[in-house]
Design brief:
- By secondary structure, the chain is mainly alpha-helical.
- The chain folds into 2 domains: 3-207, Alpha-lytic protease prodomain-like; 213-324, Cation efflux protein, cytoplasmic domain (Alpha-Beta Plaits).
- Helix content is 65%, strand content 9%.
- The protein is built from 9 helices and 3 strands, in the order H-H-H-H-H-H-H-E-E-H-E-H.
- The chain has helices at 3-35, 38-64, 79-107, 115-143, 146-175, 179-207, 213-225, 260-278, 320-324; strands at 233-242, 245-254, 282-290.
- Strand 1 (233-242) and strand 2 form a beta hairpin.
- Helix 1 (3-35) packs antiparallel against helix 2, helix 3 runs parallel beside helix 5 (146-175) and helix 5 runs antiparallel to helix 6.
- The chain crosses the membrane at residues 12-35, 47-65, 86-107, 119-137, 158-176, 182-200.
- GO terms for molecular function: cadmium ion transmembrane transporter activity; ferrous iron transmembrane transporter activity; zinc efflux antiporter activity.
- Residues 217-291 form the Cation efflux protein cytoplasmic domain.
Length: 331
Amino acid sequence: MPTHTKAVSSTRIMALMLGLALVLLSVKFGAYFLTNSNAILTDALESIINFVTGGVALYSVYLAAKPKDLDHPYGHGKIELISSGLEGALISLAGIAIMVKSVYNLLYPQPIQKMDLGILLTLVTGAVNYAAGRYLVRRGTQEHSLTIIANGKHLLSDAYSSLGLVIGLGCIYFTNILWLDSVVAIIFGSFITYTGYGIVRHSISGVMDEADLQLMDRIITVLNQRRRENWIDLHNLRVIKYGSQLHIDCHLTLPWYFNLQESHKEVEILQEIITQEMGDVVELFVHLDPCLPPASCRLCTKSDCRLREHEFVGRVEWTLDNVSENQKHSL
């Protein structure tokens, strides 16, 4: 799917999710006013965050999809890191607010009513959030969109919270022990706070361009599997994420006698392999190095080289450790 088409589709999806968040927000607050349950209020308060962050996410996806310009030569994808960080911070604040109110209600208990209806509404909204969250995480992973993934994980955490609340509310319903309502709310307020912290931590890592070791290992594995004889060495591999866009830098060692046209062809093949694996979100920058006989000959697998100055000793398997280093490999 072309990048522009993906962007339009993602924007529409986030707009639909914003509308869904508003509907679920109304249902959850309705359940709270019917029951006066502090635990149900925790679910309703988190839905406010769902709606606010849904709006931020919608704008973020729209802005990230804008093409590069003179002011933003790497695109606008970094906005997704800011968006997900804001979402995580708001989630944590909601969790803290839930715990504070729950402690208050432990000290000053309030009567609870119509618990059966509250349980039903919580279960329904939790199921909807779970389905929406699973879809967003899968879609965001396919499009390398941190905003969509963060929004999906938020909905999943909301769904898990709802399930826990249903269990807790069920205990309250059958035992009539009212203080359990606040205890359940404190437990899931803590869970919500921790979820928000995880999202903030991930977004900060992106802003600081922290290496995504799992992503790099995936790329290295593919290059090892489809390695060509002409690719004598690969090193100084770096991957930087700008929203859904991936910027990959590396040094590729080729036979020193290759002309410009031959070298360019090898770079095109490298680009094609990475694009097939990662999709059309990759911008590749390759620095070409000439081989240095006889040291390079020892690890060169090129069988038809007429200028070899040393016998082949062994192939160097590319790994996360040796490909990340800024130096040629040797035997």
